[in-house]
C-alpha cells in the first residue's frame, strides 16, 4: 500500500501531516522523505542511520586524443548535453539524462562512461517507524533520480511518501505508483490556487486523491466551497492551534506533544486506507 502526501506549495504542513500519520501507523510503516532538496522528516522522526547508499548516474567521458570531431554524439543527444564547435564536444552534465547513446554512436570509441554522484539515500531506524531519506548532492539540478532511488529503497507493505512541494517533475516522480494521494492545503487564496494546480496534475495522471485542510478556522469556506464544487473528499481538518506551531518549532511530533490530536490523525489515516481498499 502506497500513500503520497503532497501539496502545491511549501509551508502548508505537508511534512507535519506525513510524519504524524507515520507515527500514528506505527512500526509497520516506512516513511520516504522524497523532498530530497530539503529533507526534514528526520527532525521529527529521530533515530540512527543504519544504511547509506550513493545514487549516481553514468555520464560520458570524452577522450579528446581519439575524438575526430564527427559530431555523431552531438547530433544524437536529444537533451543537448553535448555541443561541438569543430573539435571535441563540450559536455554539460546537468543536461545529461544518462542514456548512454553517445557512447554507442561514437565510431572512434572516444567516449567512455563514468559515475556522476547525484546524492544518497539513508535508512534511519526511528522509534516510531522506518525512515528512508533521499538527499540531493549540492549543485545537482534534477532531484528525480534520487527520488526514484529513495522510493525503490522502501521496504514493507505500507509506505508513505512525503512529496516535495510544487507541481513539476519531482512531484510527479513521487506520486507515480501511489495508491492514493493526500493533498495538504491551507485556507488562503494562495493555498487554493496551488491546490487547483495540483488537482489538475493528479487528474491528468488518473490518481485518486483527497484533501486535508491545515490551520483551519471556523469561518473558513474557501477550500470547502472548492472541494464541494469539484467533488473532492475532505478527509480531515487540523485547527489553527498555537500549541501545534510550538511543537513543530521544537521538532516534536504533534501526536506525542499533544496526545489529544492522535485520534484526528488516526481518523485521517483510516479514511485514506478505506479509499485505498474500497
* Main structural class: alpha/beta
User: Which stretches of 5+ consecutive residues score pLDDT under 50?
Assistant: none
Work out the strand percent: 25-35%
Largest sheet: 9 strands, mixed
The structural domain count equals 2
Return the CATH topology of the largest domain. Answer: Rossmann fold
Secondary-structure arrangement, i.e. CATH architecture of the largest domain: 3-Layer(aba) Sandwich
Task: Quote the average pLDDT.
Answer: 96
Instruction: Figure out the total of helices.
Output: 10
**Can you tell me the overall shape?**
elongated
| Estimated helix fraction | 25-40%
Write down the secondary-structure element order. EHEEHEEHEEHEHEHEHEHHH
Rg from alpha-carbon coordinates: 22 Å
Q: Which strand order do you get reading across the main beta sheet? A: 3-6-7-2-8-1-9-10-11
**Beginning-to-end CA distance, first to last residue:** 13 Å
> Mind telling me the CATH superfamily name of the largest domain?
P-loop containing nucleotide triphosphate hydrolases
Task: Summarize the entry for a quick read.
By secondary structure, the protein is an alpha/beta fold. The chain folds into 2 domains: 2-46 and 127-277, P-loop containing nucleotide triphosphate hydrolases (Rossmann fold, 3-Layer(aba) Sandwich), CATH 3.40.50.300; 57-116, Alpha-Beta Plaits (2-Layer Sandwich), CATH 3.30.70. The protein has helices spanning 14-25, 72-76, 101-105, 144-153, 169-175, 189-205, 222-230, 242-249, 254-257, 262-277; strands at residues 2-6, 29-33, 47-62, 82-83, 90-91, 111-126, 130-136, 158-162, 180-185, 209-216, 234-239.
